[in-house]
Amino acid sequence: MTPVSSKLYTDDVSLLMVLIDTNPYFWSSMKNTAFTFSKFLSHVLAFLNSILLLNQMNQVVVIATGYHSCDYVFDSSSSMQRAECLLEKLEEFVDKDESLSQEDSVDGVGFSLLSGSLSMALCYIQRVFRTGPLHPQPRILCLHGSPDGPGQYVAVMNAIFSAQRSMVPIDSCVIGSQHSAFLQQASYITGGVYLKPQVSDGLFQYLSTVFATDLHSRAFLQLPRPVGVDFRASCFCHKNTIDMGYICSVCLSIFCKHHKKCSTCGSNFGEARKQDPSASDQKRKTPDGS
């Protein structure tokens, strides 16, 4: 892999990886509000067109994040693909993901496959890094609404640290009713921007004023700063978010309760042995008995 220090970037050319949350259970829960999935897409499409208009060399790649799967639905660098194809491929993906979801019984809004879409975005960026010595500035924008999936904690954190090592910032725009601890940590660790719009109908204004600028121009702007980042982890045994827990000293797995054996690496956890006072006194004595 090309070392990070040897990568050369163009200042004002961006490679924007957009991850769109298409979880059918989440958007079905939004039907009671005025902000529907079709209105959300209208804001996103206007934002993507503005990115491509800012610089003719800008590249936009859209990845759909569903409940069961994730897939590339648009790539502006492809000469065979137009912007009109985005809605068609996105509709095909949503129908396929909904058909797979009908076999499962889901409580609430479910969890979207955020870890999978982040991995696909990083793989695409690494492929671009290998194409030549000069690259556009890569960044990831997560348009997310579903709650965090505790079972994806390890995979999401691996993707975050991989993005940090590759100097790829992860921007987060949370459109749901609650904050995302995963994306808060992702934006904080990678140097991205985390934002939860207060008014859903003004999503395009939030996207165009905060996330449209390239990385070179961000040094001259005052963008929203993270406030109250939730750094809590999820335990490996029950997948629950915990404040305090037990950590394996070998593989750093986190558990909410004490276990005799690590379920990840198989290491045995030994309890601290209490020393006998008489034995400790004998150790302090010198060989001559003094």
Automatic annotation (TrEMBL):
GO terms for biological process: nucleotide-excision repair; regulation of DNA-templated transcription. Keywords: DNA damage, DNA repair, Metal-binding, Nucleus, Transcription, Transcription regulation, Zinc, Zinc-finger. It comes from the Eukaryota. One of its GO terms (molecular function) is zinc ion binding. InterPro entries: TFIIH_Tfb4/GTF2H3, vWFA_dom_sf. Coiled coil: none annotated. Residues 271-290 have a biased composition (Basic and acidic residues). It holds the Pfam family Tfb4. One of its GO terms (cellular component) is transcription factor TFIIH core complex. Its main location: nucleus. The keyword Repeat does not apply. It is found in: Nucleus. Residues 270-290 are annotated as: Disordered. Component of the 7-subunit TFIIH core complex composed of XPB, XPD, TFB1/GTF2H1, GTF2H2/P44, TFB4/GTF2H3, TFB2/GTF2H4 and TFB5/GTF2H5, which is active in NER. The core complex associates with the 3-subunit CDK-activating kinase (CAK) module composed of CYCH1/cyclin H1, CDKD and MAT1/At4g30820 to form the 10-subunit holoenzyme (holo-TFIIH) active in transcription. Belongs to the TFB4 family. Component of the general transcription and DNA repair factor IIH (TFIIH) core complex, which is involved in general and transcription-coupled nucleotide excision repair (NER) of damaged DNA and, when complexed to CAK, in RNA transcription by RNA polymerase II. In NER, TFIIH acts by opening DNA around the lesion to allow the excision of the damaged oligonucleotide and its replacement by a new DNA fragment. In transcription, TFIIH has an essential role in transcription initiation. This is General transcription and DNA repair factor IIH subunit TFB4. It comes from Nicotiana tabacum (Common tobacco).
